[in-house]
Amino acid sequence: MELKIFSLGLIIIMLSGCGYGHHNSFRLALVTLKNSQPCIAAEDESVTNSGHSKLLQIGISERLSDGKMHSVWERDDMENPTYTVLPLQCVPVPYHFEANKEYSVSLVTAYSSRDVDTKRIWVRNFTLEELKSQEDK
After folding, report:
1. Which segments of the chain are extended strands (E)?
2. Cα 76–79–82 angle (5° rounding)?
3. Number of independent structural domains in the chain
């Protein structure tokens, strides 16, 4: 099911002319376990390894019984970003994740809220069980 949704989204992006051959701001967030809780981080790339990339927004969603993702926690620093996002470093998230639940995380980073060229949107779906199985490998 997720592959169908991803494929449909990719087709829409390609047909609209966005993303393909142009600057694509979407990236896969790195999510691992640290002290039994998810460590959410950005990859090492030119906009994060410079030390200038700021956290503009971060959101956590949870899949509820209706099968849809619902926002359960959010931090919005769009007006005054102060937290510097460094590659592979955990972004603090004061949310208690629970076993047997599916989550989605999205981070928005950029040098500033007006600097569109450095804007990155880091996304990833995960469960604690998936993260634990990756840790065991």
Report:
1. 26-28, 30-34, 37-41, 54-63, 69-76, 102-110, 120-127
2. 75
3. 1
Q: What letter does residue 42 receive in the DSSP assignment?
A: -
Is the pTM of the predicted complex or chain greater than 0.85?
Answer: no
Please state, in angstroms and rounded to a whole number, the distance separating the CA atoms of residues 121 and 57.
9
Per the structure, the complete domain to which residue 56 belongs is given by 24-136
**Does 86 fall in a domain?**
yes
CA distances from 104 to 33, 75, 84 (A): 15, 14, 22
The whole-angstrom distance between residue 70's C-alpha and the CA centroid of its chain comes to 15
Q: What is the mean pLDDT of each run of 10 residues along the chain (137 residues)?
A: 56 53 80 94 88 94 97 95 94 95 96 89 97 86
Read off φ and ψ for residue 67, nearest 5 degrees: 85, 0
Q: H helices then E strands: how many in the chain?
A: 2, 7
